[in-house]
Amino acid sequence: MPEQIVAVAGGVVGGILLFVLAGITAYLLWKKFCLLSSYEELNGPVTTTPAKAILQVQSSSETQPKSTRSRSVPFIIPPTLHRRDWINLVNEEQVQEDSDPYVIPQSGPRSSFHSLAGAYIVGTINPELYKFPEDKSETDFPEGSIGRLWFSMEYEQESEKLFVSLIKVRKLQPPADSCSPFVKIYLLPDERRYLQSKTKRKTLNPQFDENFVFQVSSKMLFQSTLKFLVYHVDKQKKHHLLGQVTFPLKNETLTADSKLVVWRDLEKEYLEPPSEFGDIQFSLSYNDYLGRLTVVVLRAKGLKLQDESHAASVYVKVSLMNHNKFIKSKKTAAVLGSLNPVYNETFSFKADETELDTTSLSLSVFQNMEGDKTHLLGRVIVGPFMYTRGKELEHWNEMISKPKELVKRWHALCHSS
Question: Which pTM value belongs to this model?
Fold first, then answer.
């Protein structure tokens, strides 16, 4: 009797276990069937390409010689979007439409790519379109370059401090085979005090990464100019100037929150002896298509100020003349207390190409005096053969021969008109 009870109990337990296993199996099969059927179709006439076809094209292209054109990346709609609507666009792209989110999509080609079951390839993406632009500042140097300097700036308003970071210099052109450079940094108009970097031994591409601090009020900051002088130290400990960079701060927005990183090409020092009344550097350009004459007033040097205090201010007046008759004039901002002011200001004038033979430019340097009076420090006139000779005529003719290019030169100031 006990044996029969045990046998019956065992049969009942076995039957229950069998029933449970059968139920689990049926549920899993039903769930898989529902998922596969729900991924089966997409709504609308979307022009798609099977993943297998894309892969076959790519694999066949790998056997051919590589071209300069970049390979495309397939753009795939994931199967999670199977319950979304799609509407046609003119360029055959698809966009999601906020209508009934429960409409079952119509049939569309299935991808045979086994690891992306239920996915649909609708196009390709060109990776070249998403690359960051290449920084060519260390590779593209102009013809005749004597080097390039990188630096950064930030200004702390509360403490009135200008922080300057000397980063690096590249492609120096020293007088000897070896080069041991260092840099002096001025904050003009103060030309008596400067800060100096360490000397880097035997390198044409010194990496400095040095920080300097200038104390300057916010009012004077925008009237100041940073000046970098790059020197080479030879074996006899003599210093040779390799080049310089001047950077006016008047048009810059400097804060303590953002660091402004800048690079500039080195310029050669003006080596000619100073003239009696000083010298001025400016660029000329003529656009024959627009009929536009452009003047860039860069800087002056060796001016003979009547009052050499820091309160003395100097500006440049640029006048357009035709047949020696005044047409129009423009002037720079005044720079305080400097014998060598830096301007970097651009002016444009309308001048027809047929009038260039009778047109001239007059650049006059004035010093502001007490009582709204001005004192003429010097003047230079550039123009055609009718008005000028020598360097002034050469500058004008070079401007005409190189349309749309800026032609830069130094000129001696004089008092004659």
Answer: 0.47
